[in-house]
Specification:
Residues 1-18, 27-41 have a biased composition (Basic and acidic residues). The chain is mainly alpha-helical and 101 residues long. The protein contains four helices and no strands.
Length: 101
């Protein structure tokens, strides 16, 4: 550890602090490793595979369910490992599939 400077002359300390920090050498940039570049390429191709069409704006809908309906919906969601909202959206999509825009 370096020896601590005495606090006798505060102006000198302030100047040293200000000017030494601005004159400090910049660290050398390390070349990027090939593994980093390869992983970026892999990530890029993976993101292309999972690219989804632009999302349509959403509208919030509040629905009153009976306790029985809610319990059954919760059980269905738990069994299938999906969110209740996903299940309701799928059911609505099926019900509205016959309607033309």
């Amino acid at each position: 550890m370096s020896k601590r400077k005495p606090l006798d002359n505060n102006e000198d300390l302030a100047k040293d602090f200000v000017f030494e920090s601005s004159q400090s050498p910049t660290p050398d940039k390390k070349p990027k490793s090939k593994t980093t570049i390869e992983s970026k390429n892999k990530t890029g191709s993976m993101s292309e595979k999972f690219k989804v069409a632009p999302k349509e704006p959403t509208v919030r809908l509040t629905v009153d369910l009976t306790e029985t309906q809610h319990r059954k919906l919760s059980i269905l969601a738990a069994k299938n490992g999906r969110k209740k909202a996903e299940i309701v959206r799928m059911l609505l999509d099926e019900a509205l599939a016959d309607i033309d825009d």
